[in-house]
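Supplementary Data S3. Sequence and structure tokens for construct A.
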Amino acid sequence: MDVELLQPVSNMSVHMKIFKRDYSNKYQPFLVDVVVNMCDIISRRNYSPYGRYLWGVVKRYTNFNHSCPFVGHIFARGLFLDDSVVPVKLPLGDYQIVLLAFENYGEKPPQSIGLIKFSAKAMVPVIPKRNRTNPTNRTTGQASQTVIVPVQIGK
């Protein structure tokens, strides 16, 4: 993703929403609908947990890693969400993360900077057969165990 900011952004807020796809194949709101002032998060004047997670991802995968104001070329490369970024275990399924950026969110009307949408999927990790140390029973999903029973032959 590449963005060219033509004017300096000095007070940026991000409206973060998470949606989960349901049984009818529509995205429904899922737990997170929050507005975070990114300039406060970056300068450590606000310790919103959602803002800290968002800042951790932004700092790791973009050149958007300095304090306000923002101007010029901004890019994001190789975004990947794993267990180190996501704070909790999510239910399996398809998710959509929507980030709506605003300038001066507290004023009416706020100036929209842009919209970022991306999709993610929470899945069970696949373990290759050669790396398995404890094989599992495919029907029950439990680890198979070898039990040695002493047998007495003859008396």
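Construct B, processed identically:
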Amino acid sequence: MKSDFSTSFTVPNTAQEVFDAITNVRAWWAGTVEGESKKTGDEFTYRYKNMHYSRHRLTEVIPCKKITWETVESALNFVENQQEWAGTTIDFDITASGGTTTLRFTHHGLQPLLACYNDCTNAWNHYINGCLRELVLLKMLKTTAVELIRNCLILNSVFL
């Protein structure tokens, strides 16, 4: 039975805010990202020191719903089979409901039998549930702060 790595989080943000954060890969995936990551057909490379290189192609982009990356190339220099990610796919499924949005991340092909599984799942948990989630929440906090400042300015102009 296949057991692809999957994780998820729910935030009080819009699906658009979650979608925008995912497509801004440079903002949440530490390392060097080159190329584009916004629309179907875009390709980008990711490098982290001399440990990780991968090239990804966006094969499906449905705004505010789903993004799929195909891993076209990989060089994971910390395992014997450096191509473990090559041919795998990564799905970002976005579901909005009742004022919250859930992101389900699945790396199809990243399974417990792979040598990189423990290191890679630890890294994905850090990037998805840490960096990406925080980026999404920061957007909400910035929006709220701007609204609060705007409201204060309006009240000040009315009462002063």
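The domain at 5-159 is CATH 3.30.530.20 (Alpha-D-Glucose-1,6-Bisphosphate; Chain A, domain 4). The first helix runs from residue 15 to 23.
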